[in-house]
Structures are given as C-alpha cells and as structure tokens.
Amino acid sequence: MSAQRVVLTGIGVLTSIGNGVDEFTTALREGRCGAGPITLFDPTDFRQQIACEVTDFEPERWVRHTPLEELGRASQFSIAAARMAMADAGLEPAQLRDRPGLVTVGTTDGEARELDQLVESEIADGPERLDPTAVRRLPAHRLALSVVRELGLARAVPSVLGTACAAGNYAIGDGLDAVSSGEVDYALVGGSDALARRTFAGFSRLGLVASDRCRPFDAEREGLLTAEGAGVLLLETLDSALARGATIHAELLGYGLNCDAHHPTAPDQESVTRCMALALADAGVKPADVDLVSAHGTGTRTNDITESRAIRALFEDGPPPTVALKSMLGHSMGAASALGAAASAIALSRGFIPPTVNHRTTDPECGIDCVPNEAVEAPLRVVMNNGLAFGGNNASVVLGRYEEASR
Amino acid sequence: MSTAPAAQRARGPVITAWSAVSPYGIGRAAFTGGVRAGERTDAPVDPETWRSPDERACLVPDFDVRAVLGKSGTRGMDRVTGLAITTVRELFAEAEAARCPVPAGEGTALVLGTTLGSAQSQHDFVRASYEGEKPYDVPTRQMPYTLMNCPAAATAIRFDLKGPNSTVAGGRMSGILALGYARRLLATGRTERALVGAVEEYSRSRAWIDRHSRRTAEGQPDPRLGEGCAVLLLEPATGEPDADVPDASADPARTPLAELLAIDIRADVRGDPTSTLRESVSQALGDAEVSPEQVWAATSGELPGPLGADERRLLAELFGEPATARGRGHELLGDTAAVSGVFQLTTLLARAAEDTEAADRFAVLTSVDEDGMIASAVLRLLAQDGGS
C-alpha cells in the first residue's frame, strides 16, 4: 500500500501554562511561564524548590468510566489529553470504537510518582503493608491502556514507549507510520509524565536544576526546571480528514530516529545532526525550507551548546529561528516533545513563533536566534521539533502547514 | 545455509536468529538444551543476597553482571541492563560463530520490551532521597538505570547500535508489541534489520510489587517469578524486494526460521477478556489467511491464575490439545512477565527445529494480562535445515 498523507486534526494538552488547545495557544502567544513553588511533593531541604506543575486539573472531569483510585496521575493525564484531542478533532469515542487504531503514549517515568509514594510508605510501615490498589497503578503500559479502556476503543492497540525524554516524538513517529501505511485508521499519540520526586532529586544532585527560571540558550542559564504534563495528538489520513470536513492543524511530513550509542547522559553532536537530517529526508524537505526549529532546549549548559551546534551543522546557510518551549513549560520529560509538536502545529496554523521566555543575553556559544521573550507573527510552512534523551535516544519530527497541493 | 526455496518465499519480516539468557543458562544452546530436557528451573532464593519474600524463583544461574560481562564499563550496572547486554552479546557471538555475523551501526535497530525497567534501581534511588541526610543525596551514577530505556541504550553503546533504539513498555505484551513496532520500522525502511526482544529482572522490589498486585485466587500456590532476556533478529523477507527499500533484505547466508504473518493487539473494553481474546485470535488468523487446522503449535502466555487458565482452555478449544502441548514449556522458566512473550516464541523455535513436521506450518502466540491487555500473533515456521 502506498503511503498516504497524514494530518493532525486534534490536539489535547495539559501543561503548567494552560490546559486545552485554546488556552495553550493563548499562553504560547503571551509567552507565559509555568514555573512555581513545588506542591506535589515536599520540597523541604532541597536546594531548589521550583517546578512547573499542571494546575486546575480535575481528573473527574475527564475520567468517567474508570475508578479514579485505579489510575496514577500520569494515566489520568493521558486520559484527559486524549479526550481533549478527540473533542478538538470533533470526534466522539463511539465513532472510533470499532475502527483499527493505535494509542501510543511516550513517557520517561511512567507512574514514578506512585512508586515514590510507595517507597515512602514502605520506609514507614514495611513492604508487607503496601496498598495493593496503589501497587497496581505502577505498570507503565497503563498510560495507554487506560485511555483505550476509558474511551472504549475496542480495536485500538495500546502501546507505551519508554524512550525517556524523546518518547513523545517516538510515539508520534510510530503513529505516523501506522496511519500512513493503512495499518490503522487513526492514532492517538503523544506523551505523559507526572512530577516525580525521584527525577527532581536526580537532576538536582547532578546540578542541572535552575534556582528560579529556565533560560535556554542564555549566557547565564542555570539548568532545567522539572515539569509535568501531557500532549496527545489525533492523527488521520488527509483523505479521512477531508471527507469529514475536519479542521487540519498541520500535516505530519516525516520523522527521524537514531541512537548515539555513545554516552549514557551526554548527547553526541554529530548524531543529533544525523537524526535531524534523517527527519528532513523522510519529510522530503531541504534544510533551507525549514522555517522554525522547536529545540529540545532544556536550558542545561551541555544540551544547549551541543544541540545548537548540531543545528548549525545541519543548516549550512544559517539556522532558522530556534525556540525552546521549556522556558515556558519546564521539562515535562516524556510529554515534552509531544507538547513541542502540539505547539509546532499551533504555530503553523496560527502563523506565529512562540518565544523563548526568561531570556536576557543569548550565549554566543549557542549562536542561534531563540526569538527572545515576545512571540513573533510569521507565516510558517515547515517546523522541525526535536526530542533528545538520556541514552542517546534521538527523535525529530517535521510538521508542515497543510496545503492542498501535494508535496 | 541456503536461500529459502520458492515454496517458502516469505512476505512478512522473518526471524533469522535468536538468543536468550534464561534460567536455563546463557546463550541459545543452553536454552535449546533446557527446552529439550523440559525440567523445572525454580530453586531456593538465597535470603542473604536477595532479602526477598519469595522462597523459590527461577533465576538465571550464577548471573553476576560483572562476572559475566567483565569489569570494564559495568560498575554499578543493574541486573536488567546486564541481562540485555549479555543476550545481545550472545546473539552476535553465535552469528559470528555460524559465519554470518550481524552488522551493527546505523542499519541496526534495537527494540526492547520491559515492564518498568528496573523497579529495584528506581526503588533504591528514591529511597536514598528519603533516607539521605539531604533529599538530593541520591547516587547520580545510578540515575540512568532508573530510566526504562537504560537496557536498550546501554546495549546500543556496548555494540554500536546506531539505528532506532526503542523501549516498549508493554508488560506481558512486550514481546508481541515489540514485534509489531519493529515490523513498522522495517516496512518503512527506517532500519535494515532489528534486534527485537524483551527483558525482565528478578529483584526484591519486583517480588514485593508482584506479591501485592497479584490476583491469583486464594489457596492457589504462589507463582514462581522468573527472569531473563531473549532477542530475535528480524529482517525483511528475501522473497519480494520492496521497491521503496532496495537494500533491505535478509542476509541470504542466514536461514529464515519463521515468518511474522499477523499481529493483533487490543484491550478488553467490556469486561470479557476471553471473548476479546477469541476475537483477537480470529482477526490475526484471518489477516494471516491461516485456518485453525493448519496451526502446528499454539502457545499461551501462562499468566498465573484463572485468567491464564481460560486462555489455555480457549487455545485448546480452537487448536486442539496436540497443538497446545507443543506450545507449552516456557512456563518452566517461571512467570517471566515482560519477556514471557519472547520466551514463548524462542521455546517454539527451539522445538520446531527438532521436528520436521513443523516446517511450513503455523504457530499462534497469545498473551493476556490482569489489566485487560490482549495480544495474538501468527507465524509461519520455516524449515530449519542445517540450522545456523
């Protein structure tokens, strides 16, 4: 079967700067920052106490058929984001119920937050007294399975990809292939992670957490802010979207995956360039055609230098504007690149570049235009969205503004 | 050592090599020997080493990461990562010994299934945060091991695997999910070949998690937990070169052992897992254009408890006792969770290699879990003349 064009017709997001596509769009345009005091675990005695939490989350609004106590926070997020994406696409679960589908959720930590709490109670009461209901929330595959069961998607494949902080892009790529080949009629793909003490403690000890704000590409950047969130995209073929008169946010043009096979935590510049080149080749797009890069952009010294060098190596005639959404959203781990893809689609359809906020002076070693602090109106045609992960798991996704003429 | 005859031309991707680290020991020969002997593998769990609530479990014998892999680059390496690296090492070494080495580099993907990664590594890390003098007193060297992608990523570093490197967190469905995912990577030409497998470690933390989440009925014996890793080499079929992927096809030096024909994965959304499984098997058979009487072996996931028993009964009803008897054996390795699906398959492949009647007949794999996941796969077994 020849490959079909795949479009994004539904966006569901939960973030520290706003939930749902409309609020998220406004927040991106305004350059909101989601940083705030940590409330989801006790930050006493940590050197930094700031993170980006999802506020105004009422799980009972979204979870209707599953007992809430069976779901960890990351699974509740993925259900909420999936429902939002379907509503945004103008679809009812019943319309997809008997059609072959793929529900792939990327995650770094799965329900790590649940394990954090279980370990705390084990220290207090011993391993014999753990709450079975809480223990059953742990398996990572529930992040996708819970969506499928809650929405009653009888023919959907529930799948979770644990490729750390690039997992959202991995999921989107897999959905693109499954829809494009005709293996499935639709895909709900993205990422979800809830704020976990374990991750915060690790990054804190590594000296990678900023004290107040995340400032990617800034000369005085201190590091990342841990965050939580979820982004789920509804993908379908162009023919399907046109047939039902759906609003098309963007077309998915292609993606690239590779592995550094080099170092457990430090990214490899050449390999990152190669991943982006793979994505552009898959999309059939030349570097000169890329109007915007949504960088992984964590705000750590190493990532931002390595990634910006990798970008400059790819764009021989100078890189396009390169923004870091983590300045607003924090690092939402497995959700990060899914939220990056959602923001890229919004940027394409609404014609603006979301800014890199909290910015003071661009690090000359980075040498890119990060569109500081203020959104810029721009008619974008092609955006590349990066996700890089510990373990050298790289994934880049290329999105294009939907245009009727086939590329 | 020949290309497949015309009658065996395959269209789906083919499995051309496999290896395993299991309670039978390290490597494919140990696994094949274990399947042939058909003996139980459970043994007492050393209380001092493990401080586990389990009295018995099915462990990889004498598996000490640094003893097996050497001291270089293994300091602090957790068990699940060691199991994955050792399995891929064995697969590469066995292919080398058979004079058809598997290339590494950019053309080789690794797709590895897991439940949680290492529950123990995660547990120890956050416990340090609660018990340290300061909450950030955590062992940062261990941080990569808290991530689910560590076994796949560390294996890539060790063997220079620069293709797509994907971790599928599928619990008991990991094997079939990983095959489905890798099949898409091959079909789209994103990789020339894929190492596809799954890994599960034994640990005290896993033992407690399992104990609390288990739903076996009162009065039934506790299941024995098992561990290990199994990895298959999946390549595009040689039969019909894909115009879009001109260079990608199985190395003719390797004998295809089985062809992946169909996969169906779904969730039980109406509280009737057995009927859902029946539909899933029926869908997979239909997609593969295989009728039940053509099925030589049917293997269930051997989930402990009544749900697993229902699964076994359904397969016996659909395919008959002789076929399900040929599909058994991997339960001797204990409840191997994430790696159970791949162990189902490697057990079948080991058995098919010793039975000439298996050639050009079909195998059905199924798996169910307590959360409502359901998976089926249909494969064609190919003549393993001469083996590899």
Largest sheet of chain B: 10 strands, mixed
Beta-strand content estimate of chain A: 15-25%
Q: Estimate the global geometry of chain B from the Cα principal axes.
A: globular
Main structural class of chain A = alpha/beta
Q: Are there runs of chain A of 5+ residues with pLDDT below 50, and where?
A: none
Q: SSE order of chain B in H/E notation?
A: EEHEHEHHEHHEHEHEEHEHHHEE
Number of domains of chain A: 2
Which strand order do you get reading across the main beta sheet of chain A? 5-4-6-7-1-8-14-13-9-10
Mean pLDDT of chain A equals 97
CATH architecture of the largest domain in chain A: 3-Layer(aba) Sandwich
**Count of DSSP E strands of chain B?**
12
Supply the number of structural domains of chain B. Answer: 2
The most extensive interface between chains reads: A-B, 73 and 69 residues
Shape of chain A: globular
Assembly type of the chains comes to heterodimer
Amount of beta strand of chain B? 15-25%
**Percentage of residues in helical conformation of chain B:** 25-40%
**The CATH homologous superfamily of the largest domain in chain B:** Thiolase/Chalcone synthase
Organism (chain B): Streptomyces oceani
Keywords (chain B): Transferase
Protein name (chain B): Beta-ketoacyl synthase-like N-terminal domain-containing protein
Domain Beta-ketoacyl synthase-like N-terminal (chain B): 14-215
